[in-house]
Amino acid sequence: VAYGQVGIRCRHCAHLPHNQRSSRSACFPSSLSRIYQSLTMMIRDHFVRCTGMPDNVKERFLSLKQRATQGATDSKRYWVESAKKLGMIDTEEHGIKISDVKLKEAEEAEARAEAGIEGGSTE
To answer: CA of 63: how far to CAs of 34, 58, 66, 77, in Å?
Structure first.
């Protein structure tokens, strides 16, 4: 794991100390093409054991999981394309990162929001 590397974590137990979370509560895929695999492993190994997930959410998850079919290549493609639209890129040494252009856009949007300026127009 490197500074700035994109990771995925469970929203239900992220606030808990590491030793109170079940396995695979977070992952750092090495490439865009491995996001799908990382998520399926999290779904299979973590969510059923997550100590922070509310019971009603876990019941709904298990119900949906029973009806789900194996992922198709379209699902894998969806995750890669969605990540690219968000500005994620593969790097040779540090897995997935957010492109410098997207980081700059996000920083500018945050600065505008803090200043109370809507949109990016200067009119």
So the answer is: 26, 9, 5, 25
- Quick one: pLDDT at residue 74? 74
Distance (Å, whole) CA 123 – CA 23? 51
**What's the pTM value of the predicted model, to 2 decimals?**
0.73
Query: So what's the pLDDT on residue 34?
Result: 96
* Mean pLDDT, rounded, for 16-25: 94
CB 48 within 8 A of CB 59: no
HEC assignment per residue over 84-98: HHCCEEEECCCEEEE
Identity of the residue numbered 62: L
Confidence of residue 123 (pLDDT cuts 50, 70, 90): very low
Q: What are phi and psi of 101, to 5 degrees?
A: -65, -45
> Helices in 15-96 by DSSP H: which ranges?
35-45, 55-67, 73-85
User: What is the rounded CA–CA span in Å between residue 117 and residue 57?
Assistant: 38
